[in-house]
Design goal:
About 35% of the residues lie in helices and about 25% in strands. By secondary structure, it is α+β, with helices and mostly antiparallel strands. Helix 1 packs across helix 11. It is globular, with a radius of gyration of 21 Å. The mean pLDDT is about 95.
Length: about 400
């Protein structure tokens, strides 16, 4: 009979997932962390870590072979029972490690659907989930046919980046070809997609044995690509409960995650509702929790902390016996802005609905919570106007997330 504690190996090339690691430790597991040498001094939950290992990195990118060799050497003297990727950029690395060490969990084939935007679109379309018209860009003739058949504007998208990083919006075929030619040998790592004006929604989920056991639906005030590329304050809020939008998105989310093959874990999935006809289109999904403090948004509205519940799910033995907590049905709104001030003062924002304030240099952020959807909408609309005056600053779009 196994008497040793079970061991969780966490991969984090960016600073995130502290609450996940704390909860794994509370569940009685050993917790090991592999992270980047460049963020050695980050605020890791060291009191919950049994050991921490640092990978040499360039812009937080690891060489896969180095990780496999390093973790395999670690495995000589440390049992590894689970491997979890805490950031989008670690999903493929974790999948490769599981395959190499024969550790249970998502392998490389399934992992591809949660990182490769071309693969996930093709799979969603196979399952009858609407997606914006798209094409791979491997072949010149195929690209020219697409540009002739699908009216612009179009987006040239990296297949494996996170958020809106690296996306180029184009209005003429010549612009598309200029971008593709500039990409050179990197061209095959991109796709081409029709730009559909609309409202972007996100569904944040916990999945156990292929069933979505918890999901919260929210809507961005402006699509993230517009916020990133045009410059604006970021905001998102819970959608109205029992609305048609909530029901349709919960159904689409279940279909998407089943199609992609997620057996268990957390997911952040995005859809767009076209202004033209109200059709919902699948945009992308992931096998991790949402960034930009969406975890705090969901917890404020529901009482469910996605990091904590994901950890409990991974630690539950036997698999399939996890049960999510009863969720509240309140509403929450999140607003975040780059700030001109190093330590912006949000003291003038003093409504009783404020339940969280962001503590980060050159950023201002708040979360409001209420049982009233209309009150949250009123507060967020007011704060958006005021944040643009009080704090808002712009910076160039980064090539990779800066966390």
């Amino acid at each position: 009979m196994l008497t040793r504690p079970l061991t969780m190996l966490c991969l984090a090339s960016y600073e995130k997932g502290a609450e996940f690691m704390r909860e794994v430790k509370r569940q009685g597991w050993r917790v090991y962390l592999v992270t980047s040498e460049s963020i050695r001094d980050a605020n890791w939950p060291r009191e919950s870590l049994d050991d921490i290992f640092f990978m040499p990195d360039e812009n937080k990118k690891w060489r896969l072979n180095d990780v496999i060799l390093g973790v395999s050497y670690l495995a000589r003297t440390h049992h590894i029972d689970r491997i979890v990727a805490l950031d989008d950029f670690d999903v493929e690395t974790a999948a490769a490690l599981r395959e190499h060490l024969r550790v249970p969990g998502m392998g490389e084939t399934t992992g591809r659907y949660f990182r490769d935007k071309l693969a996930m679109r093709a799979k969603a379309r196979e399952q009858g989930v609407p997606v914006p018209p798209f094409t791979a860009v491997f072949n010149d003739e195929v690209v020219n046919h697409y540009l002739a058949e699908v009216p612009g504007p179009w987006l040239v998208k990296p297949r494996s980046e996170a958020s809106t990083i690296g996306i180029k919006r184009t209005a003429a075929p010549e612009e598309v070809w200029n971008i593709l030619n500039q990409l050179g040998d990197r061209r095959s790592f991109y796709l081409l997609e029709k730009f559909i004006p609309g409202e972007v929604y996100h569904v944040d989920s916990i999945v156990s044995e292929r069933e979505v056991v918890f999901a919260a639906v929210s809507r961005y005030t402006r699509p993230p690509i517009e916020v990133m590329h045009d410059g604006d304050v970021f905001a998102t809020r819970t959608v109205e409960h029992d609305s048609d939008d909530e029901h349709r998105l919960l159904e689409f989310n279940q279909r998407v995650l089943k199609a992609m093959g997620l057996v268990r874990g957390a997911s952040h999935t995005e859809f767009i509702k076209a202004h033209e006809d109200g059709t919902f289109y699948f945009l992308e999904t992931s096998a991790r929790v949402g960034g930009a403090n969406i975890v705090e948004l969901v917890e404020s509205a529901t009482g469910v902390n996605l990091w904590r519940e994901w950890a409990k799910l991974e630690c539950t033995e036997p698999p399939g016996s996890y049960r999510p907590p009863q969720a509240r049905r309140d509403y929450a709104g999140l607003i975040i802005s780059l700030a001109r001030q190093q330590r912006p003062d949000t003291g003038a924002y003093n409504d009783p609905e404020i339940v969280w304030r962001l503590d980060k240099d050159f950023h201002a952020g708040l979360i409001v919570k209420s049982s009233s959807y209309h009150r949250i909408t009123q507060l967020l609309d007011d704060y958006l106007r005021r944040f643009r005056i009080d704090f808002f600053a712009r910076q160039p779009v980064p090539e990779r997330p800066t966390n």
